[in-house]
Amino acid sequence: MGCFYSKTTHLSSPDDPSSVTDAVKVDSANENEGDEENQISAFKEYSLSELRKATNGFSTGNIVSESGEKAPNVVYRGKLDNNRLVAVKRFSKQSWPDAQQFAAEAAGLGKVRHRRLVNLIGCCAEGDERLLVSEFMPNDTLSKHLFHWDKQPLPWDMRVRVAYYIAQALDHCNTENRKIYHDLNAYRVLFDEDGDPRLSSFGLMKNSRDGKSYSTNLAYTPPEFLRTGRVIPESVIYSYGTVLLDLLSGKHIPPSHALDLIRGKNVLLLMDSSLEGQYANDDATKFVELASKCLQSEARDRPDSKFLLASVTPLQKQKEVPSHVLMGLPKSTVVLPTILSPLGKACARMDLTAVHEILLKTGYKDEEGAENELSFQEWTQQVQEMLNTKKSGDVAFRDKDFKSAIEYYSKLVTMMSVPSATVFARRALSYLMNGQTELALRDAMQAQVCIPEWPTAFYLQALALSKLGMDQDAQDMLNDGAAFESKRQNSWRG
């Protein structure tokens, strides 16, 4: 079928280099790499139209929150005009009646930046809509890696790292006087492009101005919340303890049941059997003891974030091993291209009209010799018919009669002894204009077979993949198209 292949690179969104005070970065050699445009953007207010476009009209296919549509506040994957992936949290319409209050609260949270947080980069308070925008984390949630893993369970050393990094995030929030984190659980911990765990910044903001702060099963909420309906800084420590239980057991078990096991000295029954004993018993015991301290029924008996850090820091045994290696995840090595041709830019923003204009202007100039060969053979009736079919297809394509263009180009493909990359490219765009995205991707792949390093073929594949929602593969194709374009320009200069 062709040379199409899927990689697993991710859009990079490096950590804020200003927030490196007290944490140990595992992959320190790459700590501050990344060009300026890949750094965390300044907090901004987005228009509703921008976020509606970014999320395909808040399409259900873009929902990424684990609880789905039934949640009072839904999180969507979005792609901005600059091709950057983001997460967009859409609050229920009654959550924050005062738009100015919502925007002010969001802007304040936008200043709380740290490399262990999924940083907030924008908001929208327009009409009845209240939305938050954050960095996008491509490697799923802690819940997915603990409870619903496919290839391998989360290794013990990675579980310890999660506990350490989240303790760092909570401690930083405390230093920024953001001591309340709402509903800390395994769904709030996400993994970035390096496989590093980060704490969602969405939890720093209430689900509503006067509403409840917890949405999980009441069996897992702090005792004081059950009594008063209010959360205090110590409530966050309790919730951290429930996350420790998740990490220990690989299951979501009620704290009361876990404490019964701990008191009965049945710690082994608490441990995740999928770990197959691949951990030091002393380390597991210390982990259990910390969880027990966090889950004390009286808030005053629980430790603070400094104690959490002091407790989990000595348990780090593989600091030098990057997170993506521990987790068995591929590491992104391709960065977002900084320079795209007009065609690349048009494909990146899925502007079919612009792509059409560029393909018309380009014509068949990338297929050197093909026109001359056809002209030389014009005297045969078969070739004359082929040329007439090609001309009819080109006229239909020029006039935006894409259905006819598909018919003529399809007939032409069966007639030509040497396939034409340009014909496949034009038919690919015609398919896109006709809403036949998978056929468009097939033709773009065939164009690449004809000219293996043709940037146009890669850009059209990227466009089709974006339409199919395969954003990472689409980004790969944009990267490859830009690389081949740069290579071609350099060869011309030479």
- Percent of residues in beta strands: 5-15%
Give the class-level CATH name of the largest domain.
Answer: Mainly Alpha
CATH architecture of the largest domain: Orthogonal Bundle
Q: How far do the termini sit from each other? A: 34 Å
Helix content: 40-55%
Neighbour order of strands in the largest sheet:
1-5-6-3-2
Q: What name does the CATH topology of the largest domain carry?
A: Transferase(Phosphotransferase), domain 1
Sheet with the most strands, sense and barrel status = 5 strands, mixed
In N-to-C order, the SSE pattern is EHEEHEEEHHEEHHHHHHHHHHHHHHHH
Total domains, how many? 2
User: What's the pLDDT, averaged over the residues?
Assistant: 81
Number of helices: 20
CATH homologous superfamily name of the largest domain?
Answer: Transferase(Phosphotransferase) domain 1
Protein name: non-specific serine/threonine protein kinase
Keywords: ATP-binding, Brassinosteroid signaling pathway, Cell membrane, Kinase, Lipoprotein, Membrane, Myristate, Nucleotide-binding, Serine/threonine-protein kinase, Transferase
Subcellular location: Cell membrane
Membrane topology: Lipid-anchor
